[in-house]
Amino acid sequence: MDTKLADLKLTPWLLDELNQLGYEVVGGMQHLPAEEMLRIPGMGGHCYRKIAKALGREPFSDVKKRVRR
To answer: Where are the domains of the chain?
Structure first.
């Protein structure tokens, strides 16, 4: 959990936004649910998946896959 957000190679504007919000390491975002993380300006799916992997979460684990018929 001591992984720095800068080491995840996030987009520069998202990294600036997260630093302004006070997040410098991934462990500081542990308390945020997925919905709140995705509401951060500049946070897209690709960056969210990187952060979720660093947190040890399965991104979108509560979403069921659609069955095609």
So the answer is: 5-55
How far apart, in whole angstroms, are the C-alpha atoms of residue 38 and residue 14? 11
Tokens of 37: 């993380």
Full-model pTM: 0.78
d(CA 19, CA 66): 37
Query: Measuring CA to CA, which residue among 27, 28, 35 is closest to residue 56?
Result: 27
**Which residues fall within 8 angstroms of residue 21, CB to CB, at 6 or more apart?**
40
pLDDT digit string (tens) for 12-64?
999 999 999 999 999 889 989 988 999 999 998 889 989 998 988 876 666 66
